């Protein structure tokens, strides 16, 4: 059972946009680093983006940089992933999770907990 509920996925054409939401329970997202991960058929789960606790510093993998934007709404206790310019290779199930941090408290795209994955939300990019 996960602390997070992902939503916002769907079927879009290449070049389209989606906004994913990660809503937390039992944890205040302002005080933890949160990352988005995805898993496509036949591939391992990979980190996509993360946002650091308090500072809100964002990190992205090169494949999504310039297209995706991670953000946090403290009032709604929600982390978002705005996905623009979607490509077929973005097709995957997307998950959110608490991430590890480096010595400066900057998020690292490695899940801090590996036993609490949610159901994720499916993103399909197809023409």
Structure report:
The protein has 127 residues and is mainly β. 0% of the residues lie in helices and 48% in strands. It has no helices and eleven strands. Strands 2, 4, 5, 6, 9, 10 and 11 form a seven-stranded mixed sheet that branches. A four-stranded antiparallel sheet has the order 1-3-8-7, with no helix packed on it. The chain starts with a strand and ends with a strand.
Provide a concise account of the structure shown:
With 127 residues, the protein is mainly β. It has strands at 4-7, 10-12, 18-24, 34-39, 46-51, 58-60, 68-73, 78-83, 92-101, 107-111, 121-125.
Count the E strands. 11
**Low-confidence blocks of residues:** none
- Average pLDDT value? 95
Shape: globular
Q: Give me the secondary-structure category.
A: mainly beta
Q: In percent terms, what proportion of residues is strand?
A: over 45%
Regarding quaternary structure, how should these chains be classified?
single chain
The helicity comes to: under 10%
Distance between the termini: 34 Å
* Tally of helical segments: 0
What is the N-to-C succession of helices and strands? EEEEEEEEEEE
Radius of gyration: 13 Å
Major sheet attributes: 7 strands, mixed
Give the topology, please.
Elements: E1 4-7, E2 10-12, E3 18-24, E4 34-39, E5 46-51, E6 58-60, E7 68-73, E8 78-83, E9 92-101, E10 107-111, E11 121-125
Parallel strand pairs: 2-11
Antiparallel strand pairs: 1-3, 3-8, 4-5, 4-9, 5-6, 7-8, 9-10, 9-11
